[in-house]
């Protein structure tokens, strides 16, 4: 799960380019480009054109005009991700790689170059590697993580709450997931601005990407060496002691994978949820009515602005058919997450509320479906909730139309989200140990019950915002439909939610 980001910022098409330039959406052969300014500035428009021209599976061109299939249909994406015998995750099957038409230094190499990690594995090897990841993640103390998220969020808010303005992408969304992941991994002391900057940079194809990658891998190597001799209750130690007997290199590579997969996606999700909460009239109206919860905003965002818009990819094992298209052995396919989430067959009305419906493909599907989705949701739920609690009058300080996006073939995210609010006092934050993350007993409480946000006060009043620990949470919908192979039993009962809310400190 890495992203190349070769076209930053590249969101707004400039002067009209010559026809053969990638800035044109259509290549000379009549195929549309899935890269370049046109694809990045209006992906939804591109999906519409591709659907009209080709149906649910469309031929597209990747960087260098290399052909691939973009799967647009919801059911076609589900079929592809759930049928690894036909659609492998092993990029070494790519015919274009084998015949040399894609060079190893292709701009997308960081995302397609095969590595010995679970992302590129199929079958028994995938089960072994992914089993180590999911078993280790199952040992994480869910309530402990949520308490940490709440505390980290308040620490971040403390850094700007006196100022009355902030860019909550740079000051909040891009930091919170890294703080949480460092604590989960067992290296809270490694969290700093440099690590955040390195994690952002290492997958963006910049001149400094190699040095940034070395910085991240250096921190992970130090952690793995420490934990090999001195285990602690943290993810690194659990991966090392897992019966799958991963080597130190495998553990480091999987920690790197988890960090990349978790950081970028969760930072995008937080930023997207904040934008929706601040700008979408549906949320504004419902928030003032007292029914809207942050988890519902998160779920709607996962439909409308999925943090990963597409995943590259799958590679056809043999000749086959998908969505009426003849796929040849070795062809490359992209899981079209954002396209599937707006497939007219599942969402004929895009403005309709998706409340309670988790059938979106934001976490993909099949054996590679994101194993960290509950953690990602919890970071976004608790983090956004804590921010709104501290700054309840927060509003955009620019016109919505001024917001800028960065896009690439795998994701699209906000450049910044400037907000203003009444300056408020810093809050004292209790200092529990940061590394104790192991689950003390069987739990099933990833679901977050967030209080409804009250209507923002008109103008900037002088009233002190309610403290983070204030009661007043309103009930939240109980549970959600199960996701096969991912979700456990039903959500906890209301009483348990109340107890757990108290336990979490909010
Ligand atoms: C809201 C945030 C997140 C989103 C939207 C997201 C989405 C995804 C997607 C789309 C995939 C690709 C599945 C495929 O290849 O078909 C994936 C894989 C993965 N994600 Fe996440 N993810 C998120 C957060 C996390 C977190 C917090 C973790 C870890 C703590 C995580 C760990 C992983 C891992 C290890 C994989 C590879 C799984 C495999 O190949 O078997 N993700 N994620």
UniProtKB/TrEMBL annotation:
Molecular function terms, GO-annotated: heme binding; iron ion binding; monooxygenase activity; oxidoreductase activity, acting on paired donors, with incorporation or reduction of molecular oxygen
PROSITE patterns with a match to the protein in the record: CYTOCHROME_P450 (PS00086)
InterPro entries the record matches: Cyt_P450_B (IPR002397), Cyt_P450_CS (IPR017972), Cyt_P450_sf (IPR036396)
Compositional bias segments (type: Pro residues): 12-21
Annotated spans, Disordered: 1-29, 447-489
Domain of life: Bacteria
The family this protein is said to belong to: Belongs to the cytochrome P450 family.
Protein name as annotated: Cytochrome P450
């Amino acid at each position: 799960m890495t992203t190349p980001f070769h076209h930053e910022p590249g969101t707004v098409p400039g002067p009209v380019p010559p026809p053969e330039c990638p800035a044109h959406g259509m290549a000379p052969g009549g195929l549309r480009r899935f890269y370049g300014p046109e694809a990045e500035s209006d992906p939804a428009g591109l999906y519409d054109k591709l659907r009209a021209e080709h149906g649910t599976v469309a031929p597209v061109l990747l960087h260098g005009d290399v052909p691939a299939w973009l799967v647009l249909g919801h059911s076609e994406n589900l079929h592809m991700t759930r049928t690894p015998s036909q659609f492998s995750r092993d990029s070494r099957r790519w015919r274009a790689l084998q015949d040399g038409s894609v060079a190893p230094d292709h701009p997308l190499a960081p995302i397609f170059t095969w590595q010995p990690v679970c992302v590129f594995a199929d079958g028994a090897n995938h089960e072994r590697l992914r089993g180590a990841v999911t078993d280790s993640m199952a040992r994480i103390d869910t309530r402990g993580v949520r308490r940490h998220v709440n505390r980290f969020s308040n620490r971040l808010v403390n850094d700007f709450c006196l100022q009355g303005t902030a860019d909550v992408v740079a000051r909040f969304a891009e930091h919170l997931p890294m703080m949480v992941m460092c604590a989960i991994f067992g290296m809270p002391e490694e969290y700093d601005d440099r690590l955040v900057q390195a994690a952002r940079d290492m997958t963006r194809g910049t001149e400094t990407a190699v040095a940034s990658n070395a910085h991240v891998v250096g921190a992970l190597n130090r952690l793995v060496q420490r934990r090999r001799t001195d285990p602690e209750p943290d993810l690194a130690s659990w991966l090392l002691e897992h019966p799958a007997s991963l080597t130190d290199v495998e553990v480091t590579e999987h920690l790197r994978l988890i960090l990349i997969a978790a950081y970028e996606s969760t930072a995008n999700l937080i930023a997207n949820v904040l934008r929706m909460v601040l700008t979408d009239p549906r949320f504004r109206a419902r928030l003032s009515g007292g029914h809207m919860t942050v988890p519902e905003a998160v779920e709607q965002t996962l439909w409308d602005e999925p943090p990963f818009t597409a995943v590259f990819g799958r590679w056809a094992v043999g000749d086959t058919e998908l969505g009426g298209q003849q796929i040849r052995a070795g062809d490359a396919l992209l899981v079209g997450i954002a396209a599937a989430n707006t497939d007219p067959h599942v969402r004929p009305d895009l403005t309709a509320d998706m409340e309670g419906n988790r059938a979106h493909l934001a976490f993909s599907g099949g054996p590679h479906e994101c194993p960290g989705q509950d953690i990602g949701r919890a970071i976004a739920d608790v983090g956004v909730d804590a921010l709104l609690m501290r700054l309840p009058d927060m509003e955009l300080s620019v016109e919505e139309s001024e917001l800028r996006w960065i896009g690439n073939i795998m994701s699209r995210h906000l450049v910044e989200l400037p907000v203003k609010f009444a300056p408020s006092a810093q809050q004292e934050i209790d200092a529990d140990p940061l590394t104790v993350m192991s689950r003390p007993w069987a739990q099933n409480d990833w679901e977050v019950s967030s209080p409804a946000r009250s209507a923002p006060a008109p103008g900037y009043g002088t009233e002190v915002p309610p403290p983070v620990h204030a009661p007043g949470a309103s009930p939240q919908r109980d549970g959600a439909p199960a996701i096969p192979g991912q979700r456990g039993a039903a959500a906890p009962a209301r009483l348990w939610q109340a107890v757990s809310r108290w336990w979490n400190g909010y």
